Amino acid sequence: MAGHEGLRDVERAEPLVQGFLEHLSCVRRLSAHTVRAYGTDLNTYLDWCAREGTPAIDITHRRLRSYVAYLVSSGYAEKTINRRMSALRTFFAWLEREGEVGANHAAELPGRKMAKTLPATITDEDVGRLLDACEADGPEGMRDRAMIELMYATGARISEAARLVPADIDYAQGQVRLFGKGSKERIVPMYDQALRTVDTYVNQARPALAARRKAAGQPKALFVSSRGNDMNAQTLRARFERLVLLAGLGTDVTPHAMRHTFATEMLNGGADLKTVQELLGHESLATTQIYTHLSIERLKAATRQAHPRG
Length: 310
What we know:
Number of helices: 13
Radius of gyration: 23 Å
Strand content: under 5%
Structural class: mainly alpha
Helix content: 55-70%
Mean pLDDT: 84
Low-confidence stretches: none
Strand order of the largest sheet: 1-2-3
């Protein structure tokens, strides 16, 4: 099938893609960011099918490999290509379950090999500089210190920090309830300094920020903006990046680098891999295993530096 028939197949695919995205959002309860990423990847595929005049749904494995070849020749990064292939595999698996295709040819697409890269981490001194960059007085500074301490203490994703409400902090038990991907709940302990900082913010600064709200009702999120509104992941990230700039740190200091640091420190401190997996909210233990490589690299570096024959 090619030409006009291929274009008709692409038109047929568009509502199927929309149905798939609604499934991800409503049934699998993936985050809006993740659903948008799936949409972007699948729309890139549909655009290619339209240009080539090839079907998007009734497609062969050979034509799918042509799409991968197009991505490679266009200079896309291996990580991007793998993500778009993964989106296709998931989409066609859903189509097969829905009875829209007889076979999932995308399942046969092999993943592309990627160079192993260790996740970036930051030092305790960097965290101290971030805290020092927060305003000495005022509710915004108290909020920013609470955000930094909480993320450093728990390894929370920025999206998870944005979902928090005050009731998620259990001061008596010294822990926080986080909701990760797919709204999966997990409990993570917090060290005393982080608990005290968050407690001070909630009782002193948050009410002052909430009082500035012009819209009806009270903010629900734990972290509240200077205008009294709930801070989403985007606004929290922007605030974090502002603190990094004020602290004079490099662009490698990111919220996710704090998460990587948390995981590495847990392993270096003797925590087993399964425990770290649970603390991070990883579905697969394989995702957590990269931190064992990071810990080993640290040990190698320390040995080279300290050993007389290193």
